[in-house]
UniProtKB/TrEMBL annotation:
This is Putative pterin-4-alpha-carbinolamine dehydratase. One of its GO terms (biological process) is tetrahydrobiopterin biosynthetic process. Belongs to the pterin-4-alpha-carbinolamine dehydratase family. PANTHER family: PTERIN-4-ALPHA-CARBINOLAMINE DEHYDRATASE (PTHR12599).
């Protein structure tokens, strides 16, 4: 199945307006989430992993005690694609 193409900087900027918890540009999206404790952060990673597997698109996740640093980029597209935006939306639904 072909992967979606890289989005233009303008398309990413427009999409980010609807994703206020995320920052970034056409090269990648980022979000930091602070959870109540370490186990909550690990549980969030497991929930994100389930969604990532559904989409066959996987984020970079950095866990620091109870803080998650999330990065989304479509390496095959060389930047942000529609898959990254969909994963960001799904993560926001899991971690409002």
């Amino acid at each position: 199945m072909p992967r979606p193409p890289r989005l233009s900087p303008d398309a990413v900027a427009t999409a980010l307006a609807g994703l206020p918890l995320w920052s970034g540009d056409a090269d990648g999206l980022r979000r930091t989430v602070e959870l109540p404790g370490f186990r909550d952060a690990v549980a969030a990673i497991v929930a994100i992993a389930d969604v990532a597997e559904e989409l066959d698109h996987h984020p970079d996740v950095d866990l620091r005690w109870r803080t998650l640093h999330l990065s989304l980029v479509s390496h095959s597209a060389g930047g942000v694609s529609e898959l990254d935006l969909e994963l960001a939306r799904r993560i926001d639904a899991l971690l409002p």
